[in-house]
Amino acid sequence: MATCASILNKVFDLAPPALIGIAVDVVVKRQDSMIAQLGIKDIYGQFVVLFFLTVITWVLESFFEYVYKLLWRNLGQNIQHNLRLDAYNHLQNLELAYFEERSTGGLMSILSDDINQLERFLDVGANDIIQVITTIVVIGSTFFIVAPQVAWMAFLPMPFILFGSVAFQKFLAPRYAEVREKVGLLNSRLSNNLSGITTIKSFTAEEYETNRVADESSAYRRSNAKAIALSAVYIPLIRMFILAAFTVLLLLGGMEAVAGRLAVGAYSSLVFLVQLLLWPLTRLGDTFDLYQRAMASTNRVMDLLDTPIAIHPGNINLPVEMVRGGVEFQNVSFSYKDRLTVIKNLSLEIPAGNTVAIVGSTGSGKSTLVKLLLRFYEIQQGKITLDGIDLQKLDLRDLRRCIGLVSQDVFLFHGTVGENIAYGTFDAKPEDIIMAAKVAEAHEFIMRLPQGYETIVGERGQKLSGGQRQRLAIARAVLKDPPILILDEATSAVDNETEAAIQRSLERITVNRTTIAIAHRLSTIRDADCIYVMEHGKLVESGTHEQLLEKNGIYSNLWRVQSGLKS
Predict the structure, then answer these.
(1) N or C: which end of the chain has fewer CB within 10 A?
(2) Which residues partner with 456 through β-bridges?
């Protein structure tokens, strides 16, 4: 529909020169004019017909201009919307390794600015291309019908203009690819700096970071300047070709009209039409500029969409209410990309309903086990099962629905306290949210906030303390009520009073559910049914707190250090 409206708009836009030619024809030929041949001999009557034709032409031209702008812009918005959702949805399904190798700012540049470039082209460029083609077809046909002897003059510069446009496009493509790369790096720098603004301020590194942003911005400006320098020369060159065609037609066409071989009205129309034919070609420079920007951006979006999803979604359904919670690692080995093996031939069993703890030094692989259980990464060897079902065969959404994760790095979304507690349990009732907060011992501090549960927590929960954020994360897990609960250093960054409150809430929510606790503070996991000690990706000790103390091994040594029995 947009294409049809563009074509019709251009057809009516090309009509005024023809009407001028008809008017000249009426003045010169009078009763022998083109309109007179339709049976209207009266001169005034002919001009009245011409008047109505002019009004109709301009009204229809304006109407179809409104229609094509409306349709093209809506089409651009719709494609922009759908493409952004497709790209974002695909991005969400990629494994964590993809995000670790790319910057947030670079991905934001793809989802925002790159997709916007395509919308800008559809707003303007697509219509320009269609109207140029329509102009060539309509005016070309008119020339060959009305004055075939001079038609070749108007089309003489066409091959040069089209060849120049293609060459121009090829030269621009790599330059705009570089522009998109540079803007991605600039966005990455800005995003990274805004996220780390506290660190920048604390180290008084404002001037240093300003210089780094200036370097990235200058690189973007230089790459843009290269593309602009090339695109700016296009239109002046094209004008020279148009000048040649126009002057040749003006001269030779005029001689044909004087000699009587070309009607005066036709000559008048052709002089106007040759400008309408060739002048829009100057806009091809801007159109190709938009096109190359859009293609460079679209290629980046398509590269994202073409990234294969490494995590298999699984095909065995397991409703949450059917999950018992038995977990088993069987000879599991795993290594991150381009790094040494993190987990080495590890086997452990976690009976349903039990609480187990995993301890060990930093880098021993404790948190990696959690990521493997949630299938953020795929194992390279061995098997992990839930209730006897291989995780790689289990529906990924069902797997993650039955696991509640409370990590040391709590992420809160910009929104209210209540919305953050209900995140993941979006249909929760207000009374359920309050009950979860009470279990997590968060209700009391929430009610002291300015708007209670309606208080905005700020981006990443920056308006709350670390302990408050931790308790909201526990409330979120309580509300989810998962069969399996994972506590990854859940009390590592809080004070003793907050830790005691969190510990009390954890004792309540771990009842009758499988719990995996990863901890540095051994006092928080001494009551676990079984404690596993990891070193360098392997299990080196296991047993209850008392059994491990009796072994006088790694765990016993860690306990003595933390309890002050060993200096």
Answers:
(1) C
(2) 416
